[in-house]
Amino acid sequence: MALFAVIWSYTTNASVKEAAHAEHLTFVKDAAARGVLQEAGAWADGAGALLVFQAVSEDALRSLLAEDPYVKQGVVVEQHIYQWNPVIGPLVGV
Q1: Which end of the chain is more exposed for a tag (fewer CB within 10 A), N or C?
Q2: Within 13 Å and on the Cβ side, how many CA atoms surround 18?
Q3: Rounded to an integer, what distance in angstroms lies between the CA atom of residue 28 and that of residue 15?
Q4: Contacts of 86 by beta carbon, 8 Å cutoff, 6+ apart
């Protein structure tokens, strides 16, 4: 298993984001409960988010992310995925 940092940029269309929000929260809460999603949060200005996932591969993570309502419903307009190796903090060794 590896850790991945996912950086999202969101649409500026507030109604698109609002329409997908409840389903997205259910999705990420389930991912967190399963230990797949380690950390997540939106930027203070609401323009996007940072999420940290544990996955067997980037391809497996991309498949999971494709099912997120924010991705499926067009909230996420840009996505960057980086394999991440933390050296300080609670995620070291995860």
Answers
A1: N
A2: 3
A3: 20
A4: 3, 92, 94
